[in-house]
UniProtKB/TrEMBL annotation:
One of its GO terms (molecular function) is zinc ion binding. It comes from Adineta steineri. InterPro entries: 6-blade_b-propeller_TolB-like, NHL_repeat, TRIM-NHL_E3_ligases. This is NHL repeat containing protein-like protein. Residues 1-18 form the signal peptide. Transmembrane segments: none annotated. Keywords: Repeat, Signal. It holds the Pfam family NHL. SUPFAM superfamilies: NHL repeat. NHL repeats lie at residues 183-220, 281-324. PROSITE patterns: NHL.
Length: 328
């Protein structure tokens, strides 16, 4: 009986990890409509504090019901949008919020909050019931735009300290798992990283933002491998170049989807390739409000159907790009 319970528990955990860490389009021939549909915020880029508007949003997560949670940074609130709703409601407010992460096992949202010089990671029920609990206290990190919760531990992209740390929730301690040697451009250093993705083997993909590259930091190693962009930390608009990337997610085939914020585009980059295979969304170097344009995208996720959602931060909106699997 105990063995069967363990088997069921492991199976359910594997399903949870698959949902939260691995976007998996049906096949390599999946494409996305390059004209986005505004699902939250104003298609005209208007910012505001009403329930149907955003103001400089930063991050989003999607739960198993396709409910969307958005860090509405300059409105100082965390918004929840029930699936297909255009008007949401705040489940946390009073502090500005940058990075957020979903913990399905706890049915909770982890969020990096700040006001004045107070920065910490807090946890709330994903339905907004009850108060928040401080998970990571003051003075551990300095600016966090991205975090990942895994098995009661929290990976924190510690931007101003040029590192990624792994916080152990149970005993309130941490290890430095990437960077941590000050800023620099060689393989042992990071420079103002803003986004992280952790795969099932606990390898970390890092948007090394000011170095204009994606670094793969394998578990237990002391240096990163450049898997997208320039290993020499050079910015550019080409398909083999990046400019201030802010977010990356990776599917089970190793394909990366990159928010190349400084170039106002989303890239699809196949494993072991030296350049992106496609610009999925946006126009290199050209920002705008049109359905096929972006202005500093800062986060991207896939919903359960394989549609791509992008936080179009400076346009104060979230765009949805519908998947097309007709060639699969």
């Amino acid at each position: 009986m105990i063995a069967e319970w363990i088997k069921i528990r492991i199976l359910s955990l594997n399903i949870i990890l698959a949902i939260t860490t691995r976007p998996d389009p049906t096949c390599l021939l999946s494409t996305w409509n390059d004209n986005g549909t505004t699902i939250v915020g104003s298609q005209d880029g208007i910012h505001g504090g009403s329930l149907n508007l955003l103001y400089n949003p930063r991050d989003l997560v999607i739960d198993n019901n396709n409910d969307i949670y958005i860090s509405d940074t300059l409105n100082r609130r965390l918004m929840r949008y029930i699936s297909n709703a255009t008007e949401g409601y705040p489940i946390f407010n009073g502090f500005s919020i940058r990075g957020i992460a979903l913990s399905p096992d706890e049915q909770a949202i982890y969020l990096s909050t700040f006001i004045l010089n107070i920065e910490r990671i807090e946890r709330i029920n994903k339905n907004g019931l009850g108060g928040s609990t401080v998970i990571v206290p003051l003075e551990v990190f300095s600016v966090c735009y991205s975090l990942v919760v895994r098995l009661e531990n929290t990976y924190i992209c510690d931007t101003n300290n040029h590192r990624v740390i792994l916080w152990f929730n149970t005993n309130s301690s941490f290890d430095v798992v990437a960077g941590g040697n000050g800023w620099g451009t060689d393989s042992e250093h990071l420079q103002s990283p803003e986004g992280i993705f952790v795969d099932d083997d606990q390898n970390i993909y890092i948007t090394d933002t000011r170095n204009h590259r994606i670094q793969l930091w394998k578990k237990g190693t002391s240096q990163g491998i450049t898997v997208a962009g320039s290993s020499l930390a050079l910015a550019g608009p080409g398909l083999g170049e990046l400019r201030s990337p802010t977010a990356v997610i990776v599917d089970s085939r190793g394909t990366m989807f990159i928010a190349d914020a400084g170039n106002h585009r989303i890239l699809q980059w196949f494993k072991d390739e030296t350049q992106a295979s496609a610009i999925l969304v946006g126009s290199t170097g050209t920002l705008g409000l049109n359905p096929n344009q972006l202005n500093k995208p800062t986060s991207l996720k896939f919903d359960s159907e394989g549609n791509l959602l992008v936080v179009d931060s400076e346009n104060n909106r979230v765009q949805k790009y519908f998947v097309d699997n007709s060639q699969c």
